Each structure stands twice: as structure tokens, then as C-alpha cells.
Amino acid sequence: MPPAGLPMIGRVAAGTPILAVENLEGYLDLDRLLGDRSNLFVLRVRGDSMVDRQIYEGDYVIVRAQPQVEHGDIGVVVIDEEVTVKTILHRRSGMWLKPENQQQGYPPIRLRPQQRVRIAGKVIAVFRPLST
Predict the structure, then answer these.
(1) I need a surface site. Which of 73, 74, 99, 110 has the fewest CB within 10 A?
(2) Domain residues for 9?
(3) Residue 50 located in a structural domain
(4) Are 110 and 94 in contact (CB under 8 A)?
(5) Are residues 30 and 42 located together in one domain of the fold?
(6) Is 49 an annotated catalytic residue?
(7) In angstroms, rounded to a whole number, what is the distance separating the alpha carbons of residues 22 and 105?
(8) What are 3-24's pLDDT values in tens digits?
(9) 54-91 pLDDT tens trace
(10) Sheet of strand 74-79, all strands in order from the earlier edge strand to the far edge
(11) Which is catalytic among the residues 86, 93, 98, 122?
(12) How far apart are the C-alpha atoms of 23 and 12, rounded to whole Å?
């Protein structure tokens, strides 16, 4: 039976180059990294409102389906029939969705009681393909 996961065969410098040594260090087990995958789903990101949290147009967010998220978590929220990914803020005045793009200056979104709001889940990872 082949090992689970992707082979980790060494290290690479993102600064000054280091000696290239191919040495199997183990396997990156996605099940261990992501945990129980039964409640995970993936969405492709459209837009630039989360770039300050390193989520870019075309990225894939891996989301753990759950009905609540903590203050400051990145969550996927369904508002009426629309969906968005934002930082979730719980305040006395209610729940707010905070865009994370200072350059564009998008305003926070205050969720109103008359809106149908559902937390779809918490973003636990981002996958960014470097080529198509």
C-alpha cells in the first residue's frame, strides 16, 4: 500500500539559496493537516476584498462546514441568496463582515435582522495554483 500524502523531499530557501539535497523527510498527510474531511468543501474565490488576509481572486478556500465561527475568523456567509467570504466580527450591535483590503477601502458590512443570514463555515486553508 503506498504511503498516504505527498512526499516531502527536502527544503527550499525563499531567501539566500541553500544546498539542494533530495532527502525523503516524510509525507504531507492532507488528512492530518486538514482533519476530518467529511465536513469540508471548497469554493473558488472571486474578487479582491480579502487580499490583506492572503486570499486572492482565483484561489480556492477550503471551508469546514459549521454554523458558527469565532470573532476574527474568516468565514463563508450566506446572506439571503448571496454568498461571501469575510472576516467575521461579533459586536454588541450584531454581526459584521469585514473586508480585508485596505488599498480598496471596502466598508464593513453590518448584517441586519431582516436579512436571512447563515454561516456556511470557517475557512481553514487556502490553495493557490501557480499555473493552470
Answers:
(1) 110
(2) 1-34
(3) yes
(4) yes
(5) no
(6) yes
(7) 45
(8) 677 788 787 777 777 787 788 8
(9) 999 999 999 999 999 999 999 999 999 999 999 999 99
(10) 40-44, 60-65, 117-127, 74-79, 82-91, 94-98, 109-110
(11) 86
(12) 12
